Each structure stands twice: as C-alpha cells, then as structure tokens.
Amino acid sequence: MDHDRLHQRVRAxxxxxxxxxxxxxxxxxxxxxxxxMQRIGREHVPRRGPVIIAANHRSFLDxxxxxxxxxxxxxxxxxxxxxxxxxxxxLLTSLGAFPVQRGASDADTIITAKAILARGxxxxxxxxxxxxxxxxxxxxxxxxxxxALETGAPVVLIRPHKVRIRAGRALRFPLVEQPSPxxxxxxxxxxWPCVMLQWEWLGGLAPIRRVAVIGAGAWGTALAALLTRAGxxxxxxxxxxxxADAIAQTRVNDRHLPGVELPDQLRVVRAAELNLEGHDLVxxxxxxxxxxxxxxxxxxxxTRRLGMLLAGSGLVxxxxxxxxxxxxxxxxxxxVAVLGGPARPERVLEHGGSVVLGSRDRGFxxxxxxxxxxxxxxxxxxxxxxxxxxxGSATDVATLAAEAAITAGPDIAGAAAGxxxxxxxALARVKGAKPETFxxxxxxxxxxxxxxxxxxxxxxAAEAVDTVGLLAGLAREAQLxxxxxxxxxxxxEGRIEPAQWKNAISEPRTHRNRxxxxx
Length: 519
Prior knowledge:
The protein is an alpha/beta fold. Strand 3, helix 4 and strand 4 form a beta-alpha-beta unit.
C-alpha cells in the first residue's frame, strides 16, 4: 500500500475499533502481569478532545505501552519501511499507525496528525525521531512544537521506563497558523525539558549539565574552557590556592596554556575546595602518578550519581595498574571512561581536534560523545578501554625513545620509537586490547602527533619516565621478550649509558620470543 493511500485511510477511517480494542486489552493484561506495569499520572491525559502525547523512545513496544495510559485510540507515527504489504499495512493502520519518511520533510505526516487532532483524537509523537538507546535522552526535533502551535492541542509529556509510565501536566500553547521554524524550535525546547523531568523522576540517566575538572594542567584547562564555551557549567580545580587565584585573576594559565584566554563563566578554585555534590561528571585531568592522591582526596565525594572521565596518561605505581581499573577500585562512580587520541591541548581551543573515548558503558559513552562534540571535538568512541589507555602509554614511551636516540640520527630515533611502540602493542594484546586500537587514532595517530608537535617530547618526558619501568615490569610478568622497552627502562634508571642504548637499537637480533613479535 503506497504512502498517500496509508495517510488517506488514517485521516478518513481512523483505527479499527475492534482490532485496536482487542490488541490494547491483550497488551495491557500482559504488561500488568508480566512486567507489573505502573501507570503514574493518568489523570493528566484528557478523557476527550485533541491531545498531543510527547514521549521519549527506547523500545518498539513504547507505542503499545503508552496506549495503556488512555481508554481511547492513540495514533502514532511509524517509519515508512515497516509498512510492508497489504496485510501488515492494514494491521498497522488499524492500530493507529501512520507512516513518516525519516530524514525528509514529510508534509503528509503533519497533515494527517492535524486531521486526527481536528476530530478530537490523540497523536503520539516521539520528538527524538527514532529509538535512542542506551544512556540519556536524545535531541528533539521541532515537529512537536510546530504541531502544538498549528493545532492548539495540549501537550502531555510521557516517560516510559521499565514499563513504568509517568505523565506530567499538559502544556498549552497559543494557536499559530503558520509558525516559523524558529518558533516551532522554541516550543519544542520548552516541551523537551518537561519530558526530561519525567525521565529523571523515574530514575533515567540525567544529562550532563555540571562538570568538575580536577587538574589545571594543559589538558584540564583546555577541556574546562571547551566545555564552558559549549554551555556547560564548569569548575576547574587547581592544585594550590596560589595557582587558582592567579588563573582566576588573569583568566590565563600562563604555565600550561600561555596566551590562551579562558571564558569568564569558568569558575576556578582550589581542588580541595570543590564540592562534587550536584555535579554530573568529574574529569580527572592528572597523570596516573597523581591519581592515588587525587582519589584519596576526592573519592569519598564520587557517588553513583557521578560519571568519571580520565584525561591523563600513564600507569599507576607500583604494579602498573591501568588508571580506569584503579579508579573503579577507589570510588563508586556509576561509570568510568578514558580519553586518548592525537588532539593537543595547545591547539584544540582554536583549531579543534580528534579524540578517542574509551567506555564499556554504551550509554555513558554516547553521553560523553555528545558532550565533547558540543565542545567542537571530533570524537571516536571505542569499547576497548584497555587498548586506549595502553596506546596512550605506548605513545608516550615511544616518543621518549625517539628523543633519547635522536642524536644518533633520525633513522635510529625512528627505529627506537617503532620498536618500543610495537613491543607495548604486543603487551596490550596480551592484556586484551584490540590491534585496531593501536593502528588507529589512539595509537599510531597519537604517536605521529607527538613526534611532530613542537615541544611535545619535553612536555611528556616526566610522565613517560614514570611509565616505562612499569610497562617493562608488566611485560616481564607476561613473559614477553621486549628488548627495546627493557633497554629504555635501563637507560631511564641509569643502569646503562646512552651510547649502549643507541647501539642496542640497531644491533641485529638473533632470537625473539614469538609471543612478543609485533614489528
């Protein structure tokens, strides 16, 4: 059945009362018994007259669940692709569905919705436009605002959650014959926060509004500034009161980001004075060596309400623990993600950059992706949290290896970096990392950015020095043969001379453990 005929049928005939009634009663009994469905706020759904229901969308069952909130037919838009053949099309239209062509301006959908409301029925709209799973709510489209203005129908906000449905008070807007896109968008922006309130009341994941960044180094300062520019409420926690006072007064972090003016809305305080209650996200932009002290000071405030983003690099001494694993063991954050990739803090404020976000929690990863994209960063999300962290460490120590061998010539420096990087990649695979993580932005991309960025080796030297010995220790525990990494660790610890290190890089190898083969 074609698109136009489907719309004409819904406008002229409406839902089939027998089919609709039987299906609604069957689903309602099933939901009540099997899912123990709870319906909250049914009194807010008018018993008669036109009504627009605006709801979030998580499951294909949502239209049937929400239909149990009213004792009369409820009409809803469904994607054109599911109207396959005459039988399925007849069944769907009998249940109140009418098609929409997603990604296009579908005038027929608006005309049909207005016709349904004109005869005093209910139209169910999912402003997100598609199912959004998992995590927080998606971004609404302005169609619901346009429909509310053109019909004058009250808008009831519905939030289904684990077969708990909550309806808020109806919103009413003035009747506008031809609302502009800007006005329709403004009305949608008024409607959607009310849906979000129902969402949070039922325990849904709250959107990120307030962010605490602990660590006023280059990355911490850059992230705080980017997020503030994007409209988030951000507090930047500094190590000392003197540092906080200086940055707050001059609006410049002269030590780490000289010449970069920070937004006036960014609040700069001493980290010890931060109160994390009421924040939605805490970002720890500190090297792994400082992580134990930071979590000892703030871990008690990090509750299940808070998500955590780790933006530092390195491993936690004395056992070479990955920062994410250490953080999970030390606090009760609802989810922990890590940040890697080739973006450089001294450039992102002006030119943007690409980052890799490692998160095993898909909902939290999507939430952080949207936040960082709002801050004008190009974001790649990966579930390989181990790989993203070890790729960052591999980049740091490979850069240190190149710097240590540079006086022997660029070929030796390149060989040093490549061999160390390959050996850490082999270690990462043993730890469960994916090879493609090292081949992508978090690994090879970050390494290229490090060795080509002016001043990069010096900036990363301290963190790499702390990391190289820990990586060598992990390789020994895994029974991997990593001669380049071992030699770099011996050089850093003063057990060999620089000349020995450079000579060892170019010496032919007669034997190598197959497990460690990566070059």
